[in-house]
Every structure is written in structure tokens, then in C-alpha cells.
């Protein structure tokens, strides 16, 4: 059972920056999802997909994974580039 560690991305629909410092550990799916015969909804018997652990830093998440023997890979956060423009630029 492997996992991935990443930093929460900023929501594009909001300007706030709350919870951006959190690092998240999510487990990789152990089995593929299959359609339910009655309803047709996708699902699986893997309950680890529902687990999402939150940590204050990348080091804390890596320490937790190492302590519990979970092979984890870290996804680096891409740098945010701000496009500075004036409101008048919309009418040029």
C-alpha cells in the first residue's frame, strides 16, 4: 500500500489562502473501481481511498509514512505565478 504526499492547492474560485500550508497524505488505490450491478455507480472494496491524513509540514507527513512503513512519494508544489494587470487592460 503506497501513498502520495502533496500540498493542498489553492482553490481557483476563491481568493482566500486558508489551509494552503497543509500537507496531505493519500493512499493509492489498491484495486480498480467497478460499476455496481444494480445502480451503475462506480465503487470498490478498498477503504484506504477514503483516508486523507493532514499534516502541518512535509517533514511531518514523511516521518509518519516512515514510522508506519508506508512507501510514499512527494509531489512538489508548483510555484504560483501572479499575472499583474490593471483593470483597464481588459478594454485594450
Quick recap:
This protein has 92 residues and is of the alpha+beta class.
Structure notes:
The protein is α+β, with helices and mostly antiparallel strands and 92 residues long. It has a single domain, classed as Double Stranded RNA Binding Domain. It has one helix at residues 58-67, and strands spanning 3-7, 23-27, 34-35, 42-43, 52-55, 72-74. The strands form two sheets. It has a four-stranded mixed sheet with strand order 5-2-1-6, covered by helices on one side. Strands 3-4 form a two-stranded antiparallel ribbon. A hairpin with a 6-residue loop joins strand 3 (34-35) and strand 4 (42-43). It is flat, with a radius of gyration of 19 Å. The protein starts with a strand and ends in an 18-residue tail after the last strand. The mean pLDDT is 89.
For the biggest β-sheet, the strand order reads 5-2-1-6
Shape: flat
CATH domain fold name: Double Stranded RNA Binding Domain
Unreliable residue runs: none
Number of domain modules: 1
Number of helices: 1
The averaged pLDDT comes out at 89
What's the Cα radius of gyration?
Answer: 19 Å
Helicity level: 10-25%
Beta-sheet strand percentage?
15-25%
For the secondary structure, the number of strands is 6
How far do the termini sit from each other?
54 Å
List keywords for this structure.
single chain; two-stranded antiparallel sheet; 92 residues; Double Stranded RNA Binding Domain
